[in-house]
Amino acid sequence: MTILLRDDAASVATLTMNAPERLNALSDDMLAALHGALDDIAQDTTIHAVVLRGTGKAFCAGHDLKQMQAGRKTGDGGTAYFKDLFARCAAMMQRIQSIPQPVIAQVHGIATAAGCQLVASCDLAIADDETRFGVNGVNIGLFCSTPMVALTRNIHRKAAFEMLTTGRFISAREAQELGLINRSVHSDALSRETAEMAHSIASKLASAVKTGKQAFYAQAQMTTAEAYAYAGDVMVQNMLVADTNEGINAFLEKRNPDWT
């Protein structure tokens, strides 16, 4: 069975995690497949948006605990394996945000621990309104420290800390209110709503979206003054793009742009 499926249509790449018997856990193979696919998509100028989803009952249940436990069977008790595992996971999560194309998580069932981290790392997220989200490692004695990084960059700090320390699951509605997802929809509408968002993004000038995504994450780490100076330079470069000139002229002339 192929652990990660890719389907391209109308400038949108759909990546489907395909390990339903393990609730699409982020095993070594899954991490490698995701990172490899993201690297490929980053170089593919025909793709303007990405949808990430899972097969079976869940979006993603986090790390593969059986595999992690097997990693203990080394002379160092698993220290080197665990360090490498979390580094590889962090690199994959960051790759989501560094590729030019916006990535939309299409979430259903559960998104727990590193699976919740995966949702938080995606640029956008739409969830089935029955989905539950949690960073519940504390329930088995493992504080979700790496998922915490992405989670605290999405939702209020006190809400994140409560989830991390109690292991409490939140509903899709609460996830939307906290800012973890963009919106929740009925299961019958999940694929359609996600596709509509992806195709809306894919219809825009790809170079502008690429520039904007990179700037979005860069300015978030700056002071307000630094961010304005940086964003101003980005706007200048964007204005000098020939297709941007065409887009503005088309708007003023009330016609569709002829982008190259």
Write a structural description.
The protein has 260 residues and is α/β, with parallel strands linked by helices. It folds into two domains: 4-202, 2-enoyl-CoA Hydratase, Chain A, domain 1 (Alpha-Beta Complex); 206-252, Lyase 2-enoyl-coa Hydratase, Chain  A, domain 2 (Orthogonal Bundle), CATH 1.10.12.10. Helices cover 49% and strands 15% of the residues. The protein contains eleven helices and nine strands. The strands form two sheets. Strands 1-2-3-4-6-9 form a six-stranded mixed beta sheet, with helices on both faces. Strand 2, helix 1 (28-42) and strand 3 form a beta-alpha-beta unit. Helix 1 (28-42) packs parallel to helix 3 (79-98). The longest helix has 20 residues, at 79-98. The mean pLDDT is 97. One of its GO terms (biological process) is fatty acid metabolic process. Keywords: Fatty acid metabolism, Lipid metabolism, Transit peptide. InterPro entries: ClpP/crotonase-like_dom_sf (IPR029045), Enoyl-CoA_hydra/iso (IPR001753), Enoyl-CoA_hydra_C (IPR014748), Mitochondrial_ECH-domain (IPR052377).
Secondary-structure blueprint:
Layout: E1 4-9, E2 12-17, H1 28-42, E3 49-54, H2 65-70, H3 79-98, E4 103-107, E5 110-112, H4 114-121, E6 124-128, E7 132-134, H5 145-151, H6 157-166, E8 170-171, H7 172-178, E9 183-185, H8 190-202, H9 206-219, H10 224-239, H11 242-252
Parallel strand pairs: 2-3, 3-4, 4-6, 5-7, 6-9
Antiparallel strand pairs: 1-2, 7-8
